[in-house]
Design goal:
The structure is a single chain. By secondary structure, this protein is mainly beta. It has one domain: Beta Barrel (Thrombin, subunit H), CATH 2.40.10. The protein contains one helix and eight strands. The strands form two sheets. The protein has a six-stranded antiparallel barrel with strand order 3-4-5-8-7-6. A two-stranded antiparallel ribbon has the order 1-2.
Length: about 120
């Protein structure tokens, strides 16, 4: 796990690979996260999704008994290379999440922070 130290964004992203499932309409795609924050995540999947569309995301946390589910909006996506079957990096922003899932997700993020070797450089 790698924490980024000098972010200009509102929230620090934590580089952590987690299994994610994305449902958009009748399409379901499994992927792996590249980084997560309290308000969104970045993951890799094999097919392009429609930008600005709402999707249902299921995130499998190793410390949670049940996966966390939330509604998100696709903010950006880009193909990783020019190859035909190259995967896509996708960034989503959490739109709505049930309180139980929010608490589990935020506790997981806090545990990552407190158990990391991340040090702020002065």
């Amino acid at each position: 796990m790698k924490l980024k130290s000098f972010e200009r964004r509102r929230f620090v992203r934590i580089d952590v690979p987690l299994q994610v499932t994305v449902k958009a309409g009748g399409h379901q795609e499994k992927g792996i996260t590249k980084n997560v924050s309290p308000v969104g995540l970045r993951f890799e999947i094999s097919k392009k999704l429609e930008e600005n569309k709402n999707v249902k995301v299921t995130l499998h946390l190793p410390s949670a008994e049940n996966p966390v589910t939330f509604n998100a909006r696709i903010v950006w996506q880009e193909k990783k290379s020019l190859e035909d079957k190259a995967p896509y990096d996708v960034g989503v922003e959490i739109e709505s999440i049930e309180d139980r899932d929010k608490n589990v997700f935020l506790k997981y993020l806090c545990d990552l922070f407190y158990n990391s070797t991340y040090k702020v450089k002065n």
